[in-house]
């Protein structure tokens, strides 16, 4: 389901120096069962969302691909991925992640709910579970996204965007640079790159940032990444 990401793939070499600390932190948090394979099941959801409405996404682990379309609705294809030694052992784990798509018209919320944590089992098998999303949303709706660990790709959205990712790369397509009013993208450790005119940026390290303001525009994009890269580009070449 998850398609290759042009900008993220382009940055493979640069991202390599981030991979070790990112994976090391996750491995310390929750150990993956030895010799595990991946099994998956796909689920579909939809809800009505009007132009100017807001899609709110709150998810934990998994990649997210969002593309705009000219329909007054949100369409979600969710791929639950379980790491286990066999398909039979994977089966009970699918029900441990709940996917909720709630609301309609002016606001729709997409949330993943993992098993409850405890003092003695703080991650409750989370290393076994992830959810990849392919989402279609109205091109002129707004987007608020929070993801703990996963790569995010957004294409064709002209509404407001507020994105927060702890660990992962973010790739954003800006359909019309002339409509961009505000861009504020910051990564605590990683890279920020852009090929937009007047925003050429190529840097990696700590506290990388790119910002832009145009009082005649109407789209605002704010991005915060803790560890990972940000790639901002115009129309596909």
Characteristics of this structure?
disordered N terminus; 3 helices; 11-stranded mixed beta barrel; mainly beta; globular; 11% helix; 237 residues
Distance between the termini: 23 Å
Overall domain count: 1
Any idea what the shape is?
globular
Spatial arrangement of strands, main beta sheet: 1-3-5-2-7-9-13-10-12-8-6
Which spans have pLDDT < 50 for at least 5 consecutive residues?
2-21, 23-31
Count all strands and give the number: 13
Radius of gyration: 18 Å
Order of helices and strands: HHEEEHEEEEEEEEEE
The major sheet is characterized as: 11 strands, mixed, barrel
Fraction of helical residues: 10-25%
Structural commentary:
It is globular, with a radius of gyration of 18 Å. It is built from 3 helices and 13 strands, in the order ααβββαββββββββββ. The chain has helices at 6-10, 12-29, 87-90; strands at 37-61, 64-69, 73-84, 98-113, 129-138, 142-149, 152-155, 161-167, 170-173, 180-194, 201-213, 219-227, 230-233. It is mainly beta. It has one domain (6-233). An 11-stranded mixed barrel has the order 1-3-5-2-7-9-13-10-12-8-6. It is 11% helix and 56% strand.
């Amino acid at each position: 389901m998850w398609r290759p990401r042009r900008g993220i793939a382009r940055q493979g070499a640069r991202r390599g120096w981030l991979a070790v600390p990112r994976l090391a932190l996750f491995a310390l948090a929750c150990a993956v069962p030895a010799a595990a394979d991946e099994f998956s099941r796909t689920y579909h959801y939809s809800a009505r969302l009007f132009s100017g409405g807001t899609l709110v996404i709150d998810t934990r682990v998994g990649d997210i691909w969002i593309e705009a379309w000219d329909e007054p609705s949100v369409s979600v294809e969710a791929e639950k991925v379980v790491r286990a030694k066999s398909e039979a052992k994977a089966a009970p784990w699918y029900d441990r992640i709940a996917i909720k798509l709630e609301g309609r018209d002016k606001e729709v919320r997409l949330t993943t709910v993992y098993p409850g944590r405890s003092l003695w089992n703080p991650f409750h098998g989370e290393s076994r579970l992830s959810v990849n999303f392919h989402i279609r949303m109205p091109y002129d709706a707004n987007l608020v996204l929070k993801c703990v660990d996963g790569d995010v790709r957004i294409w064709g959205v002209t509404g407001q965007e507020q994105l927060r990712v702890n660990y992962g790369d973010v790739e954003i397509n800006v359909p019309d640079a002339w409509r961009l009013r505000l861009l504020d993208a910051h990564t605590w450790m990683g890279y920020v790159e852009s090929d937009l005119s007047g925003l050429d940026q190529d840097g990696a390290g700590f506290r990388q940032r790119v910002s832009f303001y145009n009082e005649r525009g109407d789209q605002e994009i704010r991005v915060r990444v803790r560890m990972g890269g940000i790639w901002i580009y115009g129309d596909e070449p």
